[in-house]
Amino acid sequence: MHLLREAIEAGNLWLDLSEDQVEPIFDHVLDHLVDSNVISHENRGVILTELLSNESVSSSALSDSVAIPHVYIDELSEPIIYFVRLAHPANLGAADGIATRFIFFLLGPTHAGSEHLNTLAAITSLASDDEFRYDIGKSKSKHEFLSAMDRFQQRHPKQYDEETSQAKSGHVGLEFTGKFGGGVREDIARRLPHYWNDFTEGFNLKCVGSIFFLLFACLAPAVLFAGLMGVYTDN
Questions:
Q1: Residues 142 and 11: beta-carbon distance below 8 Å
Q2: N or C, which terminus of the chain has less Cβ within 10 Å?
Q3: How far apart are CA 119 and CA 122, in angstroms?
Q4: Rounded to 5 degrees, what are φ and ψ at 59?
Q5: How many CA atoms lie within 13 A of 76 on its CB side?
Q6: Maximum alpha-carbon separation in the chain
Q7: Tens digit of each residue's pLDDT (9 = 90 or more) over 29-77
Q8: Which residues lie across from 102 on neighbouring strands?
Q9: pLDDT tens-digit map of 215-228
């Protein structure tokens, strides 16, 4: 989460971009990053190609009006986070059918995998909070966006403290312990006090609806494929 804060403090945000299609949105953001000397003009083309390629495979639009397009390439040396709030929600293909308004771009080098995962987890946690989305939907400046992050921190102090301590100690992601199953055991020990809370907080009508949606979304193609295989192979 500290990387997102640093990005916002540096001015890596665009409030109320007037576009409603994927490619123009990507074009505007990358042009701004080039103009700000954050990325080079040469890397812009590579990043755009990768972004569009990823979108053609699977939309980066998640649930709750949030999208997280991400690209990791060797040409980048530092992680880059850029936030965009669209002036009007756009249909970018989210699975829950909700139009997207908040877009978090994650760009960075391929070798920093664990750091990317922690940043992605932090942004996903923020974006899943109804109050945070409401706050950034009304924010008029980077200072108001940062205030929204501060309020999130006040509502979830344990989660924020855990992420902060990991960032300061350098223990991010999975690390080799030299022991058989050491990383798994450490991860279980770290998460064990929170497992029950994961279920109690996650078990609500919205989650139950998503579970059944994904169940049938995965089941239907499997049944169809099995039926076709039965026809073509004479059972």
A1: yes
A2: C
A3: 5
A4: -65, 140
A5: 25
A6: 66
A7: 999 999 999 999 999 999 999 999 999 988 999 888 999 999 999 889 8
A8: 66, 85
A9: 888 888 888 899 89
Count Cβ atoms below 10 Å from residue 7 Cβ, excluding itself: 22
Q: In one letter, which amino acid is 180? A: F
Q: Cα separation of 114 and 182, whole Å?
A: 17
Burial class of residue 142 in the structure, from the number of CB atoms within 10 Å of its CB (0-12 exposed, 13-18 middle, 19+ buried) = middle
Residue 157 has pLDDT above 80, yes or no: no
Quote the CA–CA distance of 44 and 64 in Å, as a whole number: 29
How far apart are alpha carbons 101 and 67 in whole angstroms?
A: 8
Rounded Cα distance between 149 and 159, Å, is: 13
Q: Could you give the CA distance from residue 37 to residue 27 in angstroms, rounded to a whole number?
A: 15
